[in-house]
Amino acid sequence: MLERMLSQRDSFWKVAATAASAGLMAASVSAQAVSLGQAADFCVLGLDGVKLSMSNPQTSVSGNVGLGPGGIQNFSDGFIGGTYTVDPTADNSKSNNVVIVGGTLSADLSGAVADARAASFAASALAPTQTFGVVKDALTIVGNGGLNVISIESISFSGATDKLTLDGGASDVFIVNVSGSVKLSHKLSRIQVGGGVSESRVLFNLTAAHDPLTISGGATIAGTYLAPNGGVRLSPAVVVGGIIGGAGETSLTSAARVECVPFAGGGTCAPPGGACTVDADCCDPSQVCTEGGTCEGR
C-alpha cells in the first residue's frame, strides 16, 4: 500500500513538473523579442529559392536588397539606393540595366534567411490582443500603449476610402499576423500609421502560401511585410517600410517604390509574474500590471 502511494506521488510530481515545464516554454516563446536579426539589414530580401524581379526604370528601392541562397535574379530595369547582396549559391547571371548605388556584394545570407523565418515563428506564437476576420472596409485599430498583437484573417481593399489605420503613440508596436492574403488595388487604398506610431514599429507576418501580398494600382502600405511562405507582387505600389518574400517570386514592377524604414523590433513582453510598468507589457492580455510591478491575473 505504501509503495503504491509513493508511486502515485511520484507520478503526480512528474506530471506537475512536465506541465510547469511546458508552461515555462510557452511563456518563453511568448516573451521573446520579435526581431528580424540580420534580415533587418535589407529593405527588400528574397529568402531561399526566391525569384527576385525588378522592371521599369522608375521602379526603386531606397536601401539594401538581398538575394538569398538558391535565389534567381530577374532584373531588367530599376534603381537600388543601397547595396545589392547576393548569396554565393544564387543565380545572378541575367544582364540588366538596374542602377545599384552601393555596388554588388557576394555574401552568405543563410543567417538572414534563418532570422527572418525565426521572426515569423516568434510573431505567430504571440497571443493576440485584438482579433479581426476579413477586413474589406475602413478600419482603425487603436493601440494599447505597448505591444499590440493583431490577428486578421485577410485584407481586401479596392476602393478610395478603404484604409487600415494602426493608431497609437510612440511606444506602440504592432505585430499583425495575417493568415490569408493582403490585397490592395486602388491608388487611394492604404495601410497606414496614425498618431505617434512609426512605420519602424509595424510588422505584418503573412503566413499563407502562394501570393499573400499583392499591391497594385499605386496603393500605399506602411510597415515591414514578412511573407516566409509565399510571393510578393508590387505593381505598382508604395511601401514605406520593407519587404521579405519567402517563396515563388517577389516582384517589383510598373514603377513600384520601396522607401526603406527598417523594423525596429517588437520588444519583449512579460510572462505571468514578470516585471512590467503598464498592462500592455504583459504577454497575456487577461493580466494586469500590479502596483508591485508584476503581471498577474485580474
What's the arrangement of secondary structure elements?
Blueprint: H1 2-31, E1 44-46, E2 51-54, E3 60-61, E4 65-67, E5 72-75, E6 79-80, E7 84-86, E8 99-100, E9 104-106, H2 110-125, E10 130-135, E11 139-142, E12 147-157, E13 163-168, E14 173-178, E15 182-184, E16 190-195, E17 202-206, E18 210-227, E19 230-245, E20 249-252, E21 257-260, E22 287-289, E23 295-297
Parallel strand pairs: 1-4, 1-19, 2-5, 2-20, 3-6, 3-21, 4-7, 6-8, 7-9, 10-12, 11-13, 12-14, 12-15, 13-16, 14-17, 15-18, 16-18, 17-18, 18-19, 19-20, 19-21
Antiparallel strand pairs: 22-23
Descriptive account of the structure:
The structure is a single chain. With 298 residues, this protein is an alpha/beta fold. Strand 22 and strand 23 (295-297) form a beta hairpin. The chain is globular. The longest helix is centred in the first third of the chain and has 30 residues, at 2-31. The chain folds into two domains: 37-260, no CATH class; 268-298, no CATH class. The protein contains two helices and 23 strands. The strands form two sheets. The protein has a five-stranded parallel barrel with strand order 12-14-17-18-15. A two-stranded antiparallel sheet has the order 22-23.
Shape: globular
Counting DSSP E segments of at least 2 residues, the number of strands comes to 23
Please bin the fraction of helical residues: 10-25%
User: Which regions are unreliable across 5 or more consecutive residues at pLDDT < 50?
Assistant: 4-32
What is the makeup of the main sheet?
5 strands, parallel, barrel
End-to-end distance, in Å? 43 Å
- Estimate what percentage of residues fall within beta strands: 35-45%
Report mean pLDDT, rounded to a whole number: 88
Oligomer: single chain
